[in-house]
Design goal:
The chain is of the alpha/beta class and 327 residues long. The protein is 38% helix and 17% strand. The longest helix has 15 residues. The chain binds iron/sulfur cluster (SF4) and zinc ion (ZN).
Length: 327
């Protein structure tokens, strides 16, 4: 049966989660608006990104206003608001200026802190001035994915450089705006070992430029190049052990991770038996920043993960070893 078309006037999702605000644990309202879609995705797109599945090019400013109204019906005093658009909130092709300003104006009076996401090229003094007129405290998340330009270009097709990210971070810092940086764990074509090293090196490089680093393990999204590789056994989402390994890193910035699809075949996973305990420990880690939460988690599959780290380079593949070796 064909799937029902999602309504243009209702948001993709709205929920409440726990977050840290000025060192205190608070409730955060998370809103995913259905936008026209990321303009980079429309032109070319990142290899792992299927966010356009949640977008609709025919969304109008009136639809956006209605979606936001629906979302704010769920606002029950949460001081923290995260507004996601499956792209860049500051991209005028995705969210027109008027909608952007009226959303921020309407939200600014109700919450203490707002987080939005943007590619670096849309971060400018003018855009931020308009936002800061309405919002007390603003945070902008940028999907840098990796500090390595070659990996970002060849394995992700991100379409901007580290210099572009650094320029945006400077504008944000100069305007007193907090920066959250997303790093991608295990882009395609990297072995598990190389993927761990890539995130560790990236954390080192950005930890003094950003207040928060969110490590996002790849989850295999519908209709993406990564999904094509995964279906042929040429890609395996990262092990949760790899995520634990990178989160052990000591860093200036706050380190967090909330793996989408964690514990499923398409998301970061181990053997299924230990996935839930690691994901639960992660929730704790995100609020308390104590790596000791992972210390007591043990499972036989850790040896298989260690073998994978050794074997992939010897086998000369970054594919899914277990599937490739199956008779
Ligand atoms: S990851 Fe971000 S920048 Fe890349 S295509 Fe998706 S929404 Fe656009
Ligand atoms: Zn296990």
């Amino acid at each position: 049966m064909p799937r029902a078309q999602p309504s243009r006037s209702t948001p993709v999702a709205v929920w409440t989660e726990r977050e840290l605000l000025n060192g205190e644990k608070v409730d955060a309202l998370v809103v995913i608006l259905r936008s026209k879609g990321c303009s980079w995705s429309n032109r070319s797109g990142c290899l792992m990104c299927g966010y356009n599945n949640d977008c609709d090019p025919s969304v109008t400013p009136e639809d956006l206003a209605r979606q936001f109204e629906h979302a704010m019906d769920k606002h029950e005093g949460q001081p923290y608001l995260k507004i996601y658009t499956s792209g860049s909130f500051f991209d005028p092709e995705e969210v027109d200026f008027e909608s952007r300003d009226s959303i921020l104006e309407s939200a600014g009076g109700k919450v203490e802190h707002i987080l939005v996401e943007s590619r670096p090229e849309f971060v400018s003094k003018e855009t931020l001035d308009a936002a800061l007129n309405s919002v007390k405290s603003l945070e902008v998340a940028i999907g840098l994915e990796t500090a390595d330009d070659a990996v970002r270009g060849k394995c992700i097709n991100k379409g901007f450089s580290f210099a572009g990210y650094a320029g945006a971070v400077k504008v944000l810092n100069d305007n007193g705006i907090m920066v959250r940086t997303y790093l991608l764990l295990k882009p395609p074509f990297l072995t598990e070992r190389k993927a761990i090293a890539d995130v560790q090196e990236s954390i080192e490089k950005v930890s003094e430029m950003t207040q928060t680093i969110s490590v996002n393990p790849v989850n295999v999204q519908r209709g993406t190049a990564v999904e094509g590789l995964w279906k042929r056994g040429l890609y395996r989402p990262p092990w949760l052990w790899s995520l634990v390994e990178v989160l052990k890193k000591t860093t200036e910035a706050r380190l967090v991770s909330a793996p989408s699809g964690g514990g499923t075949r398409r998301g970061a996973h181990n053997c299924r038996k230990c996935d839930r305990s690691i994901l639960n420990a992660l929730r704790d880690f995100n609020l308390n920043a104590d790596g000791a939460v992972f210390d007591d988690i043990n499972c036989d599959c850790r040896d298989e993960w260690l073998d994978t780290l050794e074997l992939e380079p010897l086998a000369g593949t970054s594919g899914d070893l277990a599937r490739l070796m199956r008779p």
